[in-house]
Write a structure and sequence with these properties.
alpha/beta, Rossmann fold, 6-stranded mixed sheet, two-stranded antiparallel ribbon, globular, AMP-binding, Non-ribosomal peptide synthetase, AMP-binding_CS, AMP-dep_synth/lig_dom, 2,3-dihydroxybenzoate-serine ligase activity
Length: about 200
């Protein structure tokens, strides 16, 4: 089992596989793991720190609190009508805050997160194949990635989220012609990922 392969550590180990073949947690390394951790998370505590160069070109750490991330995720779940039936394909590099939406939003509603490598995310045929294989229903990408994907046979209707750069009108029309629902997203890192979201409809 994996738990037997962990190195010696003073950190508290939390095993998520209840009833797994591994020995009960309370017997591992002679430590008491029978109770949940007693470290409550408060709303004003940090969820993460992400570095951005902004307009200065000099990296600065942006501190995002749990309450900001929680509010953002709840608002986006409502805005996009994400449900447990959805699968979101995560294509964003983890060094960008946008990845937090991809990883955590589906988990807030019991939906599925599908992960792909950077190599797949930048290759149109592989990206299309990943969308089909994972039965993706939601994807967030920059205009460049959406244009890349449009060079392939479209994989089917999606909840298409576009952000990170301005959404050109011609690209919006192309995405809408696929039968996808389209949202344009904007926000600086300091406002917790996106601060504005607008569904785009065909004119």
């Amino acid at each position: 089992s994996l738990i037997d392969q962990l190195p010696e550590t003073s950190a508290q180990v939390v095993c998520m596989d209840e009833g797994a073949i591994a020995p009960p947690l309370e017997t591992v390394a002679g430590k008491d793991y029978s109770a949940n951790p007693t470290h409550p998370v408060r709303a004003q505590q940090l969820a993460y720190v992400i570095y951005t160069s902004g307009s200065t070109g000099k990296p600065k750490g942006v501190l995002i609190e749990h309450r900001s991330l929680s509010n953002f995720l709840l608002a986006m779940a409502d805005t996009l009508s994400i449900t447990e039936a959805d699968t979101l394909l995560a294509v964003t590099t983890l060094s960008f805050d946008i990845a937090a939406l991809e990883l955590f939003l589906p988990l807030t509603v019991g939906a599925t997160v599908a992960l792909v490598s950077r190599e797949v995310a930048v290759d149109a045929p592989q990206l299309r194949a990943a969308i089909l294989e994972t039965k993706t229903t939601v994807m967030q990408a920059t205009p460049a990635t959406w244009r890349l994907l449009l060079t392939e046979a479209w994989p089917g209707p999606l909840k298409a989220l576009c952000g990170g750069e301005a959404l050109p009108p011609d690209l919006a029309e192309q995405l809408l012609l696929t039968g996808s629902a389209l949202w344009n997203l904007y926000g600086p890192t300091e406002t917790t990922i996106w601060s504005a979201a607008k569904q785009i409809v065909s004119s």
